[in-house]
Amino acid sequence: MKEKVILITGASSGIGYDAATKLAEKGHKVYAVARRMELMEPLKTKGVVPIRMDVTDEQSMVHGIQTVLDAEGRIDVLVNNAGYGYFGAVETVTMEEARRQVEVNLFGLARLCQLVLPTMRRQGSGRIINTSSIAGRATFLYGGWYNVTKYSVEALSDALRMEMKPFGIDVVMIEPGIIKTDWGLIAAKHLAESSKGTAYETEASRWASSMDWAYRSDFISNPKVISRAICRAVDNRCPRARYRKGRFSGTVIFLHWLLPAHWWDAMMHRMSILAAKKH
């Protein structure tokens, strides 16, 4: 297997950290980026090179890409994994927070694609792997702004895949289901905070409590499931356009497609009540 130069964002924890480790173990040259360098220090023992990068800062992104190019002369794979979830009713999430979520989850991803594409075109090859979500295919109660970012990642990736085909550059999406990371705990905390003292507080607090319980439980998928999917997307000669992995990923997307809109809506509200009673 030919060694590839890989840049992966959001590598300080969870899926990104595990994927960086696995890709390095498979013999690739991996550059892992995140804002918190101290959390990536252990990756050095795996041969991974940590770089500080903030995907909301233009200078930081340009510097990070140039650092890799100066060291390696090429970038074969960009894995856009950075992102976070801020749940809350559309009305109660501040526009400042909504913009930040779009900036991190969408515009940062898009800008990094723009920055690596000239190099990939010159190489005549390359691969961009964007971490989307089942939340880019199905809308969840109180997930409005997060859903906006992931639906947008889906559309952007589909458009980019068609644009890049003539240049020999692949564009792939990873669509995780419910994965046991801190993402869910943080999103639940944000939901409780943004809904406190509002008309949504009663139901939103139930939903937040259910999310917190679910992401602390052992019945959801381990991040390694998604790391393995990322590795396949990197190594497969002809990668699929989408890798959908993780608990409930296929079921959720199928039900969202199958059910009439008002049935889906009713199910979302009912789930918050049932889950709250269950735990």
Structure notes:
The chain has helices spanning 14-25, 37-40, 58-72, 95-123, 144-164, 182-195, 201-216, 224-235, 249-258, 261-278, and strands at residues 5-9, 29-34, 49-52, 77-80, 126-131, 169-176, 242-245. The protein is α/β, with parallel strands linked by helices. A seven-stranded parallel beta sheet has the order 3-2-1-4-5-6-7, sandwiched between helices. Helix 1 crosses helix 8, helix 3 (58-72) packs parallel to helix 4 (95-123) and helix 7 (201-216) crosses helix 10 (261-278). The mean pLDDT is 92.
Radius of gyration in whole Å, from Cα?
Answer: 19 Å
Main β-sheet: number of strands, strand sense, barrel status?
7 strands, parallel
* Averaged pLDDT: 92
Largest sheet strand order: 3-2-1-4-5-6-7
Number of helices: 10
Helix-strand string: EHEHEHEHEHEHHHEHH
Spatial gap, N to C terminus: 48 Å
Question: Structural class of the helices, strands and pairings?
Answer: alpha/beta
Strand % is 5-15%
- Report helical residue fraction: 40-55%
Low-pLDDT stretches: none
Record field, number of beta strands: 7
Shape: globular
Tags for this model:
54% helix; 7 strands; alpha/beta; globular; 279 residues
Summary of the model, kept short:
This protein has 279 residues and is of the alpha/beta class. The chain has helices at 14-25, 37-40, 58-72, 95-123, 144-164, 182-195, 201-216, 224-235, 249-258, 261-278, and strands spanning 5-9, 29-34, 49-52, 77-80, 126-131, 169-176, 242-245. It is globular, with a radius of gyration of 19 Å.
